[in-house]
Amino acid sequence: MTDIRSTVSPMKRRTLIQGAGAVGGTVVAGGLLAACGSDDEPSSSDTSAPPASETTAPEGDPTTEGGAAPTGTELGPTSDVPVGSGHYFESEKVIVTQPTEGTFEGFSSVCTHQGCAVSMIEDDVMICPCHGSEFSAKDGSVVQGPAEQSLKAREVRVDGDTIFLV
Ligand code: FES
């Protein structure tokens, strides 16, 4: 008794498998053509071919096609950002403010004076602890030096109740 697996090289087995796949594809296509071309002649291939395509194609599509997946880096909930003030998200070096209810602005926390972290927020002013520069929470403009330039704007987006850094 000779086992056929031992007489067929791995390369030939792969070729056989690929050939079987090609035949399978042809069968499905033929089944679909038969389904389109004939209403009065249901065959056994009509009932077996559609479920195979239905179970393989849609599974991966919702996650890639939906477009609903949020983009950007999640910062946190909108509730972290008080109206008329802001919140420092240290991990992303960004400050998000909410000058008016429902309007969110993002700013780099890198101070334009000498690069310290603008990490303090008091009401509508963002403060650098190194030398005391102050910036407006509305637009990042300088309220008090020594900094002379506004904080760099960072784009943020709100999706539901979550803030994302774009
Ligand atoms: Fe911010 Fe000097 S580095 S005030």
Tell me the number of helical segments per DSSP (H or I, 4 or more residues long).
Answer: 3
> What percent strand?
25-35%
Instruction: Note the main sheet.
Output: 4 strands, antiparallel
Q: What's the N-to-C terminus distance?
A: 67 Å
The first-level CATH class of the largest domain is given as: Mainly Beta
- Tally the beta strands: 11
Give the tally of structural domains: 2
Mean pLDDT: 72
* Helix/strand class: alpha+beta
General form: globular
Order of helices and strands: HHHEEEEEEEEEEE
Q: Strand sequence of the main sheet, in spatial order?
A: 2-3-4-9
Radius of gyration using CA atoms only: 31 Å
Brief sketch in words of this structure:
By secondary structure, the chain is α+β, with helices and mostly antiparallel strands. It has helices spanning 4-7, 10-37, 44-65, and strands at 73-77, 86-89, 94-100, 103-108, 120-122, 125-127, 134-136, 142-144, 153-154, 156-159, 162-165. Mean pLDDT is 72; it is low at 1-66.
